[in-house]
Amino acid sequence: MDHHEAKVSRIARQLRDRKSTATLSRRKKSVSHQVPKVGKAHVPDEQLDIRDFDQILAIDPVRRTCVAEPGVTFAKLVRETLRHGLVPAVVPELKTITIGGAVAGCSIESMSFQVGGFHDTCLAYEVVTAKGDVLVTTPDNEHQLIFQMMHGTFGTLGIITKITFALIPAEPFVHIIYEKHTSLAAYQASIRAHERAKDIDFMDGIIHSPERYVLCTGRFVDQAPYRHRYDWMRIYYLSTASRQEDYLRTPDYFFRYNKGVTNVHPQSFLGRLLFGKLINSTSTLWFANTFKRFLPEKVIPITVDTFIPFSRMGTFMDWYVREVNHFPLWCVPYRVVRRYEWLAEDFLSDVTDELFLDIALYGMRRDNPGHYYRIIEQELMALHAIKTLISTNSYTEEEFWTVWNKKNYDQVKRQTDPDNIFRDLYEKTCTRR
Fold this sequence. Notes:
The chain has 433 residues and is an alpha+beta fold. It has helices spanning 2-17, 74-82, 99-105, 112-115, 144-149, 184-197, 236-242, 250-254, 269-275, 281-290, 313-323, 369-383, 397-403, 406-416, 425-431, and strands spanning 24-27, 46-49, 56-60, 65-68, 86-88, 122-128, 134-137, 159-169, 173-181, 202-209, 212-221, 245-249, 302-309, 329-335, 355-364, 386-387. The strands form three sheets. An eight-stranded antiparallel sheet has the order 12-9-11-10-14-15-13-16. Strands 3, 4, 5, 6, 7 and 8 form a six-stranded antiparallel sheet that branches. A two-stranded parallel sheet has the order 1-2. The longest helix has 16 residues, at 2-17. The protein is globular.
């Protein structure tokens, strides 16, 4: 902790003593998991070096909590917490997603049908403001609005330097059952039944086509008759269509999509044989972000993560098949555990669903990607559904602030970044790359 406090003091002092009014971003060790935004202005920022904020500070097996710095990856976190028979309550799908990135960028996974996103399992954030003040924020202290607004705001409200979050008991293996359904109605009925019965630990799925739905239900187990891994020749989303069940080591389950969810590369058998151990989501994102200025627009696959109210999924799928019709899709049931302060108050006023479905479109290539980003956003707004901001966004500023809560955002911004050196959320996610 002494070493951590010294690091915090260092960056707080740098911010207090900073004379420049130029915009500022973080220099991090891990690769960015934002998808390169094509056709947007590229304006370089000055950088604040936080690469050394990558340590686990404490694991409390009795209270089932962990305290860690934002640069800790989930691969490292799972490895260390499993030594105590524990894991984070939500583990995102890629090994190099960091816990700070999971808060800032809206990370979920197959535990989310019970507990929401990773941010919903967090208990406290230490935040350094643009003026160099160090704040301890929790859901119930004087900085509670800052705590709630840090989620999904991509670092535009301050620098998270420490995160306290919940852990849950874990077993060495996960047993997965692959349920096959031929209609959306049957698929949703099974999702609802498991959600109400609380008879599983994990739930996600792959929609292979409008007539082929696979629900992947998992449970922790202490023994396994065999075990599979999906880090080389096997492709997980393809296996869901052909297998009836599976056993994976717990870490291998968490990162079964690390090669990509439905956009795995290389795709050929020979390509995977020769390069499958080398190419993964991290290397692909590193290449795309490093060379994004030189890549033509249609080379970068269309990537959209949507959150559809459970009761409006049928309407969305009817529209999607008619207007987009790209499969497979990743489906992750998501429990909204509270009315989030970062969403505009009126946006979900007529939505009563507590369960949403994250429908993720990855790997679609079309000659006019801007058209598809735009029509998906328009349909989501019509349904009072939302999306993450990790890829290309084409909202007008007026549209944007009908979805996200400008009143709360501006209130926190005045406290933590009054001179806008971390950029405005709309600017950072919609107008620059």
